[in-house]
Amino acid sequence: MWVQFPPLRSGDPMETLKVIGWGNLAQQIQDQFQIGDQVIIEGRLGMITVDRPEGFKEKQAELTVSRIHTPDMTMSSNPPLASETSSAGTTTPSVPASQPTTSPDAEPNYDDIPF
User: Which of 17, 27, 88, 92 is the most exposed place for a label (fewest CB within 10 A)?
Assistant: First the structure.
């Protein structure tokens, strides 16, 4: 499918991106979405080379979709991880076990910056 989104600068044309879905996710996309639907697409961005009729090669971006989010549903090609599923069977976001808490007035620690 092709998706369009607004340009960064006013006056520029709409941006267009090729989006590719595979397997059951592709079938769900075809069955559930129509032109004009607003979605949030999660996936892997890649660059492909296309031979143009003018005799030169052009690079184009394409997105291989892994999940599509809408306000009322989420479709995924991957099932949720075991750590993301609670005992009731509902999906919960994965949060690291220990997150350091810092006050907004504390100075940042620059000792662990890898240079």
Answer: 88
- Structure letter (DSSP) for residue 106: S
Angle at 29 between CA 28 and CA 31, to 5 degrees: 65
Per residue in 83-109, pLDDT (tens digit) is 333 334 444 344 444 444 555 566 666
Q: Per residue in 49-76, pLDDT tens?
A: 989 999 999 999 999 999 988 877 555 5
How far are the Cα atoms of 7, 9, 15, 55, 61 from residue 12, in angstroms, in the given order?
6, 6, 9, 27, 18
